[in-house]
Amino acid sequence: MKYKLLFALLFLLLPVNVYASYPLSMTQLDAVLVLDVSGSMNFADPDRLSYEAMQMFIDMLPVSGDRVGIVSYNDTVAASRELVLIETQADKDEMKAFIDALQIGGFTDITVGLMEAVRLHDEAGTSENQPVIILFTDGNNYLSPGNPRTQDDLDHDTEQIILDARARGIRIYSIGLNYDGTLNHAYIQRFSDETGALSFEASRAEDLQGIVNVLFRTLMDVNPVLQGNTLLDEDFWDTRFEIYEGTVEANVIVLSAEPVEIELLDPYGRPIPHDGHWAVLTRGNHYTLLKAIEPRPAGEWTLRLGGTAGDDAAVSVMLLSPEWAEIEEPEPEPTPTPTPVPTPVPTPVPAPPVEELPEEAEPEPLDLRWLIYAGLGLLGAVILAVLVLIGRKRSSRVFTGRLVIEVTDNYSGEKSAPQYRNLIEYGRKTDLLTLLRGQGSPLLSAVVLMPSPKAPSHMPQLLVKCGSRDLKFRKDFLEQDAAKGIAMSMRTELSIQIEAENKSLTLRYME
Predict the structure, then answer these.
(1) Phi and psi dihedrals of 78, rounded to 5?
(2) Residue partners of 439: CB distance under 8 A and separation at least 6
(3) Which of these, 206, 241, 303, 353, has the minimum number of CB atoms within 10 Å of its CB?
(4) Each residue of 240-249: pLDDT tens digit?
């Protein structure tokens, strides 16, 4: 099974020579996870991937400081767990065991689960953490025939949940499981839109864990320092990445069909033990997470992976760093005034007589304004020359790497064999229809690709632009405005929907 990995991380670079105490003000959460356990989940999620997605989210949280609560619902509250402060890995394991024990059955009333989640926030009281609700659901409200609640009741409760959440500053993130195509996404999206959150849709089982990583990136305001896919074998696969000064946690997350072995080596080549003090290793059925705690020293670290031959593993590394308070620089010490040394007075020598010459006119003082104008003119010429050189350098950039293109017929679900294009053959600019050698919708000629002029030379990017409204673009499960340009880094995946033909294309930028 092929897994998408879209992870997250934000780090702040600081001067190397700043040493001072600082407050730890990393984003931390009061999160209530709400899971639909109605009977239809037996068909929508037979492998219980929503359970594992919730457990992976808990494992991704920092070692301590967050509060987590859990609600499972069908047409009533099936099980509920108040917000618990996470202080150790044992606290996380207890929450994950609670999720494992949740039972499936009954009808569906989404408002019941969300009202319980708001109540748990009220009971927990206020804190400095960011309050959120994360909803996993497979579809519409579906009440049992004997349920006294009506559609008017559901509409009223929907309005009240949104008002209550907004009044308390709670954002409701929704993840719709649409494996059978019956999800009413507009309904659950309303909870997210009107509380300032995001809504996602998982049409395939393997999408779900990738969505959780995008969600985590959004909540923690972080971006990955390393991400990509690799085919594993019996030998270890090595890659290197930077850990920066002040990093609180380094998280290595691998999504794979089979179990993997992880080893993390510091800049001196020493392996970090998974002893709960230096690092914590946790596993699910389809994920492995290694969390290095306060990794030291800063520098280039090595990640080693081993696993089943041919297993396609999606790998991501993210660093959690604190916000540093402003540290006032110490005032410079006053420079000591040197002790004056007496200077010997020379004996005056009489000057020889000088003949008087006729008085010459004094030269006119030089007008400094002309010097300033000349200097500014010279500076402008230098700047213009530099800009011209930069423009030439950027405009002369050519493609690097390869593009992998897959076409899916959404009617039948059939997917074409991957088409590999060596981009260096296409110079500085091309379009998607040309890359497909004319075999595709004429609309694809509007999708223009070029090397990004803003990317550093050692980290090339593609820039994808399209002015057509007949094509829809998604990256990291979120819709993109292709008219403004979409940047694709190495190993980034972009999907394009051709609505008129009910086909979709997947583009992957590779080395």
Answers:
(1) -80, -40
(2) none
(3) 353
(4) 999 988 899 9
Cα distance between residue 94 and residue 492, in whole Å: 35
Q: Is the dihedral of CA 200, 203, 208, 210 positive or negative?
A: negative
Highest-scoring range by mean pLDDT, 24-33, 75-84, 253-262: 75-84
Q: What CATH homologous superfamily does 29-220 map to?
A: von Willebrand factor, type A domain (3.40.50.410)
Identify the burial level of 53 via C-beta atoms within 10 angstroms of its C-beta, where 0-12 means exposed, 13-18 middle and 19 or more buried: buried
The H-assigned helical ranges of 396-502 are 432-435
Laid out side by side, the sheet with 448-451 consists of 430-431, 448-451, 462-465, 486-488
pLDDT tens, residue by residue, 8-48 = 322 222 222 222 222 334 679 999 999 999 998 888 788 88
Side by side, which strands form the sheet with 237-243?
237-243, 299-307, 260-265
> Which residues contact residue 451 at a Cβ distance below 8 angstroms, ignoring those fewer than 6 apart?
397, 398, 399, 400, 428, 460, 461, 462, 463
Q: Give pLDDT tens digits for 215-247.
A: 888 888 787 888 777 888 767 888 999 998 889
Residue 128's nearest CA partner among 165, 85, 160, 76 is 85
Backbone angles phi, psi at 227, to 5 degrees: -155, 150
How is 6-74 classified by DSSP, letter by letter? ----------TT-----------EEEEEEEE-STTHHHH-TT-HHHHHHHHHHHHS-SSS-EEEEEEES
Q: The pTM is what?
A: 0.64
CATH of domain 402-510: 2.60.200
Would you state the structure tokens that stand for residue 353, as one six-digit string? Answer: 């007589």
For the chain, domain boundaries = 29-220, 226-320, 402-510
Contact 476, 6 (CB under 8 A): yes
Q: How do beta strands 493-498 and 478-480 pair?
A: unpaired
> In angstroms, rounded to a whole number, what is the distance separating the alpha carbons of residues 501 and 461?
29
Q: Which residues contact residue 314 at a Cβ distance below 8 angstroms, ignoring those fewer than 6 apart?
A: 3, 4, 5, 210, 227, 228, 229, 254, 255, 256
Architecture of domain 226-320: Sandwich (2.60)
Instruction: List, for residues 81-103, the tens digit of each pLDDT value.
Output: 999 999 999 999 999 999 999 99
Helix H or strand E segment including 2: none
Q: What is the dihedral of CA 189, 192, 193, 195, to 10 degrees?
A: 150
